Amino acid sequence: MSSFDLKKSTKQGVAESYYFVLKAGNGQIIAQSEMYATKQSALKGIESVKENAPVAQINDLT
Question: No. of H helices and E strands in the chain?
Fold first, then answer.
C-alpha cells in the first residue's frame, strides 16, 4: 500500500519548512513535494494529491 511521509526540512540556514514524499508499497519514493512554510500547508498538499491524482491524465510529451 502506498503512503505519504510528512517531513520537516533539516537544511541549516533555511527557514523551517515541511514537505512530503509519496512512497509505493515497496518503499520506493514515487514523488516529492515542494517545500511548505507550515505543517498545515503540507498536509493540505497531501490532501490535494489524494483528491486530484486519481483523475489526472497522462500527457506524453516525448
Answer: 1, 3
